[in-house]
Structure formats: structure tokens, C-alpha cells
Amino acid sequence: MMQTPLVLTDFVKRAERYFPKKLIISRTSETMIHRITYKEFGQRTRKLSEALTKLGMTKGTKVGSLAWNHHRHLEAYFGVPCAGAILHMINIRLSPEHIVYIINHAEDEILLVDSDIFPLIAQAAPLLKTVKHFVVMQDGTDLPETNLENVHSYEKLLEEASDSYEFPDDLEENMPAGMCYTSATTGFPKGVVYTHRSLVLQSLAIGLADSLGIRESDVAMPVVPMFHVNAWGMPFAAVNFGTTQVLPGPMFNPQLLLDLIEREKVTLTAGVPTIWLGVLNEQERNPRDLSSLRVIVCGGSASPKGLIRAFEEKYKVPFIVGYGMTETTPLVSLSTYTTEMENWSMDDKINIRATQGLTTSLIETRVVNENGEVPWDGQTMGELTVRGPWVADEYYKDDRTEEAFKNGWLYTGDIAVMTPEGYLKITDRTKDLIKSGGEWISSVDLENALMTHEAVFEAAVIAIPDEKWQERPLACVVLKEGSDVSKEELLSYLEGQFAKWWVPDSVVFLKEIPKTSVGKFLKEKLRNEMKEYQL
Amino acid sequence: MMQTPLVLTDFVKRAERYFPKKLIISRTSETMIHRITYKEFGQRTRKLSEALTKLGMTKGTKVGSLAWNHHRHLEAYFGVPCAGAILHMINIRLSPEHIVYIINHAEDEILLVDSDIFPLIAQAAPLLKTVKHFVVMQDGTDLPETNLENVHSYEKLLEEASDSYEFPDDLEENMPAGMCYTSATTGFPKGVVYTHRSLVLQSLAIGLADSLGIRESDVAMPVVPMFHVNAWGMPFAAVNFGTTQVLPGPMFNPQLLLDLIEREKVTLTAGVPTIWLGVLNEQERNPRDLSSLRVIVCGGSASPKGLIRAFEEKYKVPFIVGYGMTETTPLVSLSTYTTEMENWSMDDKINIRATQGLTTSLIETRVVNENGEVPWDGQTMGELTVRGPWVADEYYKDDRTEEAFKNGWLYTGDIAVMTPEGYLKITDRTKDLIKSGGEWISSVDLENALMTHEAVFEAAVIAIPDEKWQERPLACVVLKEGSDVSKEELLSYLEGQFAKWWVPDSVVFLKEIPKTSVGKFLKEKLRNEMKEYQL
After folding, report:
1. Which of the four pLDDT bands, split at 50, 70 and 90, describes residue A309?
2. A-chain residues within 8 Å CB-CB of B1?
3. Annotation marks residue B421 as catalytic
4. C-alpha atoms less than 13 angstroms from C-alpha of B124 in its C-beta half-sphere
5. Where are the domains of chain B?
6. Cβ contacts of A195 on chain B, cutoff 8 Å
7. What is the CATH number of domain A434-529?
8. Are B87 and B178 in contact (CB under 8 A)?
9. Check whether domain B432-535 has CATH 3.20.20.60, yes or no
10. Active-site pick, B146, B440, B487, B520
11. Third-level CATH fold of B1-165+173-204
12. CA nearest B268: which of B207, B309, B350?
């Protein structure tokens, strides 16, 4: 068989060749909507490759991006790796200190920066040890006022580039193509390097009919940021399949997302639960036509069943929960149904949807405890381990590699059970698990149950030190606006659903739950805040 | 990223793990229907690996199969390559001389043979230079009467094998997994070796929503023989996705296929046009419930538009034409629709369906003539060339490699045009093209047009030597039973549809068109038979 490599270049060429008229709809500010065709995308991507090459980009150069979801970022998704360089997608929600660290650690030489993020970077510039050029992504060729040298206008660079750039044809599939850093429990973020092979294979995986089935006829809107784990791979796959893309730009809100869904007839969209909670709220107040939607994908943290039920029952939109992490490119599993579930009750189906789902083709998962793989009983907890061709085997130049990568498996730090059907169900992070009297209590299960209560907006359950039981659960609850419920009512609401010793010892009501840069509960902070709490 | 290899072993493990209760429905004779689960399939496959290992199979051993579509053949599809050996699927419709040649050429050491094919092989046995063991595939453990030594019962071997066989975990993705031989215009068949990587990648490709979208909820019936180009990859993909399989066994007829479709609620089936012509005929006479069918896949030779129209319009079954060859594993393209065709007329849509379709992900195609790639005008003919990770780069130990593999591309020997939408349309084999007065005439286009005439069952158009024009077309026509039409009527039927110089000079009526072992017109034979014909 031919040793044709699996490289992203083929995706651009396929889009240019077979889908030149299909559209990328991109929002770069609150008012600017750009519509470019895949033909134009191809030309602009080639120009970007040429322009960056002129700035000194060569094979293996790291190019950082600090940008929202828009067509220029998409051009960078291909223009950088297809020239043999590496796109380092920088999470702009990290602290400035961490952003400086990862740019230096990755040794980025060029930064592609959205105009609204540029001031932050300009300020940090003296600390950046390897950056030689700043390219400002904005409409038009104006440049922001700055004392920095080597600041370029993205559009000006493209204007000056020729049309004739050809991607190098000697790329190998195991060459690095992208990088993301993921927050660590302690210390600086850890880097993961994606190869062309891993990104191509994952793109095929999300095109499978039994997965997201992303296809030419889709209108795909990744709400998950393009600076976060490849926007779950959607932009890569969409280019290969010639899918219409809607990139919602900076500072979007639920209203804007719903407007885009209705106006652009979005069929497939993906984001974290917080996004969909907000969208659901807005939709209840001011309903839009959601009939174009074929699937909402949700991941990043546990999805409340009430959220799933609302979309599935009321709006008839399949709401699929997925699991993955920066280390896994990220697709590991999706809560799609199998035929055995066809005649299940709605309740049972929603229960399946709320799991992290069935492991995708080419990926292996095992939930393991000290006895090996846990039984598929929906109860026995263990740590989720993952293996496969788009799973990292190390952190980039980082000693913490050995904590997570053992015996050819990635140890995810997530605690999970296996349902009898073989679906993964995350019950906790290793570090968030509550260990009470030698037994494990899942904070996520308790949170999900609390969030089904009509008065509860959000709930986080954390461990509080306890002399007798080592740890006991404490529920931290944010109520819905205008709602009211007592501590006792909430606890008795849980009593029917869990073993007595699982029920939290108390409830505290908060205005908000602290969250990470990507919207996950920041339980470490919560535990610190509650350190002094007396049960 | 982890260097997890793309190997077929993962498919078996996935089916065993996630789809143990799903069924393989297999017909081994006209009366015997076997239903085994994927759990049993996994056990039997592992036992087969062990049993063949005991017979001397080791890494790289070639194991030939001479078998119809049934569960034992499916077990061999995995039990041989997952043990590191190579399954040589032997086309039982080749001449005995060619069968002997390819067994010797491949150096098969073990043959897995259906009981009804065994007498043929027993007779040829003295000519087989490398075969050490014959394993007879049939229900029960009886053996046919024979003087041959080393004849084993498949079921007996499995009975004696243990349950504990583990597939080797050191397989590499570029290791050979399978072999098929393809007929050559002259000389002996040419061998193609498939690797684990090529078979895994093609399996993903046919699982894509934009391709066949084969999925867990499908009931897939490959009618295309498992001895012919991996049964177009369906059995491999079906195991990975946990798809229910219906394997129709030996000596099936249209009636049996329709019975299986209706009874087993087949959703996806694949075969050559001759099969679907027969099925359509039978359905018209004795209609069955076809409502379970989601798609019929047709390939191997051009599909008459009348056939496509009947299934699409009358029976509401999408009828997708595909293109591929032994050298391409085989999937190259499929005549699926894109969004731009949504509002097209039925006629225009049928015209698209009748093309060989849009090139699939990861595969590159180019139709080239002496000026390079042909324009996408639906008219300019050139030779189709193909490149990609499941395209062969050589014939196995064969000097004819250099005729077909040039500059990294496979030269298919098929003449094609490109439609304005980028769909491939095969107009001829290089050797069947009619060259008249310096211009090319497509025999396939003329045949397709003739076959839309209500009196015509089959038509082949061939070149006849001509003093003035070098060659002129002659139509060879088989009429439908009880139909009648004159030569003049048929020619005037064509006159409205083609340039005057394309219209054949005459028509001869035949009882049948000679065909190859896989149902394609044997035009070389026809040309020889017509050599003396005077226009």
C-alpha cells in the first residue's frame, strides 16, 4: 500500500477542490459578519503560510495564537501546520503569568493576536523570551498604537503575499502540527503536542455516522473556543468534509448564539454545559426557531439532566454528552444511543445521555482500581485510563509526564464507573472524590441530583475534613434568580435518591461557584474558601 | 501522541467488548441459517487463530480462503490477520488454471475451503506447490471423502482449540493482512497485498456519515462476494461498528436476497448491477417489504439509469454507485449527493447517482490526458489516476507493477470525465475505448443509453476495425424476454442522444454477453467473437 501520510494539507486541498463555494461564516466583532468561501479560505490560508514563512517561520517553528473563533484563526489552524510549523493555541483565559510561561515554554517565535487581546500581550511583551513577531488579527490593515517593534497587520501580510504558495509535499504524519497547554492542579500548565496523524484520525472519528457524523450538509458552530483543545476537532473535520462553519467570534452571549442558530440554520454545535444552560434560559424567555439543529454536543464537565431533558423533550434536539481532555485531542467517548436503547423509556434514555458515553472507534478505555478493570455495574469506581492514536504519550518537556503516562496508558485523574452497557460515567476528579469512612462518595452524582431541583441553578459538592470519617460532603448551592429553598428541603430531596451516608452534612448557599478558565468548577478554590467551615 | 498502530485486532476487541449480543446471521447452505453473536464470533475467531497456529501458521504465513459469504469466512477475515498471518481471499470464479497459479504465486500454506468447492481443490491439489493443510468449512465435523492428506474439519479444529488464545500485541500497522488477485487483460492474475493500516482506514472511511455511514444500528448484507476485494470492506467495518451482518452464503438468487432483506430488516446492502437487475425483476413480480433498506450500494461496472430510477423513485431506496478496484481496497468514490443538489430535478439527481461519484476522504483522484488534468466539463476524457493510504503501490512480485504504478499514482486503466461538480464518471476501460477518426467514443455511455430502452436487457458496445476511421462502434444487444425491437429502431433511439459519429454503425442481437468472473462484460472475448463481423 502507498505510504501516503495522514496530513492536514489534504483537508485544505479537499475543501478547495470539491467545496469551493461552501461558506465559512465568521464573526470578528459584535457587528462584523464575514462570509468567505472555502476557495477564498484556501487562498488566504496559502497566503498566510507564505507570509509567515517570510517572517521566518520554517518547519518546526512554534506560532502562538491568542484568538477567538473566527475565520482568521481557522486560517492559522491550517496555514501554520500545512507549512510544517506548529500552531500553539493559547488559552486566553489563563492568568497573564501562565500565558507568559507557556509562550516561553513552547518557545513561540510568532504570535497571532486578536486586536482586543493585543493590549494584554503588549504589556507582557518584555517577559516573552522567544517571540520575534506579533501579527494582529483584525478587520482592515490598521495597527493598534504600540511601542512594540515587529508588529504586523494580518490583513496587510496577506495583501502582500502571492497567490502561488504551494504547501510542502514532504510532511510526515508524525510531525507535530499543534499544541495546547492544560491547567495543572499545582504549578504551571502542561503542554500537549498534536501530530498531523492524530488530528486527521480524530477528524475521521467525528465524521463517523456512529459519532457526531459531521458531514458536508452540516452547518457546524463550535462554541467551544478554538484556543481550547482544537475546538474539539470540529474546525479540522469541517474543512475536510466541506461543512459550512459558523464561528461566533469574541464575547458572544446566549442571545447571539441563538440568533446565529436561527439565522444560519446551524445543525451541529458544541460547547460546555454553562453555555447551554445560558442558551436554554434565553430560549425559554425568547424562543427562536431551533428546528435546524440536529445535535448539540456538550462536554468539559458533567451536564445536568434537567438541561439534557429540556433540549431533548421540549425542543427535540438530541443533546449528546462527550468526554475528552487536552491530552486526548480530545474525543474519547460520546453518549450516543445504540439499538438496544431504542425502546427504552425517556428517563432511561436521559440517564444514558448524561453519561460520558460509549468509547469511540480506535480509542481504548479502562476504568481500573486496585483489582484491575472494574465490573460494569454502574457502581464500582476506578480511575479512567485511555489509549489510542490521538492520545498523548507525554507532556511537552515536563517532568510531570511520569505521573500521568504509565504502561502505555494515560491516567486521566478522572474517577468513573462503567454502566452495564459499557458507557463511561465520570463520578469525580481523583482529587475531588470524597473519601468517607473508607468508602468513596461521588461529588458529581450529588451535584447532578441537586441540579435537578427546580430551585437550584448550580451546585458543587466538596469534601470537608471530618475527625470521625476523614471527609464528609458539603453542598455549595447557587439558587436560581427569585427561587428559594431551605437547607433541610434540599437534603431531604437527596435522601430518597442516595444511601444515607452519601447525603451531604450541610448546604451553604453561594452567589456563584468559582470556575476555571474553561467553565469547570474550581473546587480547589471552593475547598480553600470553605476550609474554616464547621459542619 | 501514542504510536498505537491501526490494526484489525482492535476491531475484534471492540465488537467483543461493546457489542457482544449483536448478531451475525449467516447462511451456509440453502437451508441452514446460523445466528451467532459477536461474543461467539470473538471466541470462534480466537479459536481459529489458535487452531491455525497449531497447524503451523505464523507471522507472514499465507492462508488461502475459497469460500462464500458466511460466518466462518468472517472468522477467517480476522482470525488469520489478527494472528499476524495473511488471508489470501481467492476468487472462486477464476478458471482452475488461474486458481492454481495464484495459490502457488502467493505461496499459500493452508487453504480454508467451503465443502462445495473442495472437490475442485482436491482435483487441483497435485499442482499446489506450497499447501500443507486443507481445512474444510462446513456445518458439523464430517469430512468429505478424499484421498488427500492433511484435510481437517474447520469445526473440529475449533472444538479442539482452547478459549484462552490472545492475539499478539506486537502487530504493526504496515504488516500485510490480506491479499486479492485481480484479472489481467493478458496473462495471469495480479496480486495486491492489503495492510492492517489500509483496511482499518478504509473501514473508517465507509463509516463516515458522508460515505456509506455504516453504523451500529445497520443490518448490513454484503452480496458482493467475500472473495472479491474484501467484500468492499463491509465485513471489516461492520465488526468495528458492531453492525448486525447478514451473510447470504452460496448460490443465492434474487428471491433469497429479497427474503433476507424483508425478514432480517436489512438496511444496507452492496453488490454489482447484475445482482440488482435480478433483484428488481423479482421484486416487480413478487414484491417484498423493502422499507428497512436505507441504501443499496452498487459497483463493479456501470449501473443502468433505469435500475437506479426504479429503486430511487418506485421503492424510495437510495441507490448509490461506487467506484473502486482490487488495487484500491476498494473504496475510491461514491455517488452521494451534496447540498447543492438538494433542489435538483429527479432526472438531474439520477444523472449524478449514475456517476462513479465524489472522491472519498483521504483519497486523491485525477483524470489526466496528455495536457494534464482534464477540465471539469463532463466531456473531456482522460485516464483516472488514484492515490491514497489504501491504494496499492505495486503488484505482488510482478513485473507488471511498472505499467500501473507511476510517479506515486495508480493508473487505473479506466477512462473517465469529471462533471462540473467534481464527480467521476467512468466512460470506458482504456482498452475498450473506441477511437474513431482521432476522437474518443465512450462505449459505456452508449451502453447506458441502450439499456434505458424498454426492450433491452443488456448491451455492450465494442470497437470494430474500420479502414477509414480506424475503429467504429458496434452494439451487441440482449433483448428482454418476449421483447422485440429492430436494429433501425435502436439506432434511431440513440441518434437523438449523441453526436452522429458516436452512433454505432450496426447492432447485433445476442443471447448473452460474455462476462468475467465478477459479472463485468468480457469485451475482449466479444471483440474476438466479432472479429469477422462486417459492418
Report:
1. very high
2. 174, 193-195, 197-198, 329, 389-393
3. no
4. 23
5. 1-165+173-204, 432-535
6. 1
7. 3.30.300.30
8. yes
9. no
10. B440
11. Rossmann fold (3.40.50)
12. B207
| ω into B287 cis (within 30 of 0) | no
Cell of residue A279, nine digits: 442558551
Check if A159 is active-site: no
pLDDT in tens, A13-64: 999 999 999 999 999 987 789 999 999 999 999 999 999 999 999 999 999 9
Residue B63 belongs to what H/E stretch? strand B62-66
Asked about A107 being catalytic, the answer comes back as no
DSSP conformation letters of B254-314: HHHHHHHHHHHT--EEEE-HHHHHHHHHHHHHS----TT--EEEE-SSPPPHHHHHIIIII
Rounded Cα distance, B213 and B354, in Å:
20
Question: Which residues have a Cβ under 8 Å from the Cβ of B514 and sit 6 or more positions away?
Answer: B521, B522, B525, B526, B529
Is residue B169 less than 8 Å (CB to CB) from chain A? no
In this structure, what DSSP letter does residue A374 have?
P
Q: What is the DSSP string of B145-160?
A: --S-SSEEEHHHHHHH
CA-based nearest residue in chain A for residue B218: A339
Question: Considering CB atoms only, which of B14, B217, B390 is closest to A361?
Answer: B14
**DSSP annotation of A311:** I
- Chain A residue whose CA is closest to B406: A2
Closest CA to A430 of A446, A418, A412: A412
- Give residues with Cβ within 8 angstroms of A205, minimum separation 6: A211, A331, A360, A361, A362, A363, A390, B204
With cut-offs at 50, 70 and 90, classify the pLDDT of residue B46: very high
Residues 204-263 of B with CB under 8 A from A: 204-205, 207-210, 213-217, 240-242
The dihedral region occupied by A249, where left means phi > 0, alpha psi between -120 and 50, and beta the remainder, is: left
Geometric angle at alpha carbon A107, from A106 and A110, rounded to 5°: 110
Give A329-338 pLDDT, tens digit per residue: 999 999 999 9
b/e map A272-289, b = 16+ CB within 10 Å: bbbbbbbbbebbeeeebe
Residue length of chain A: 535
Q: How confident is the model at residue A535 (pLDDT cuts 50, 70, 90)?
A: low
Tell me how far the alpha carbon of residue A187 is from its chain's centroid.
21
CB-nearest partner of B387 from A2, A19, A193: A2
For A58, list phi and psi in degrees, rounded to 5: -140, 180
- B220 with B243: CB under 8 angstroms? yes
Grid coordinates of A13? 486541498
At A254, is the pLDDT very low, low, confident or very high (cuts 50, 70, 90)? very high
CB contact under 8 A, A216 and B6: no
- Catalytic entry in B327, B383, B447, B458: B327
B196-226 core/surface letters (b: 16 or more CB in 10 A; e: else): bbbbbbbbbbbbbbbbbbbbbbbbbbbbbbb
- Which grid coordinates are listed for A330? 480530545
Burial of B427 (0-12, 13-18, 19+ CB in 10 A): buried
For B206, the closest chain A residue by CA position comes to A208
- CA neighbours closer than 13 Å in the CB half-sphere of residue B480: 13
Nearest Cα residue to B333 out of B426, B264, B397, B257? B426
Percentage of chain B exceeding pLDDT 90: 83
| Domain A365-429 CATH superfamily | Luciferase; Domain 3 (2.30.38.10)
The band of B256, judged by pLDDT with boundaries at 50, 70 and 90, is very high
Fold agreement (A365-429, A434-529): no
Q: Which amino acid is at B414?
A: D
Alpha carbon distance B479, A42 (integer Å): 52
pLDDT over threshold 70, residue B184: yes
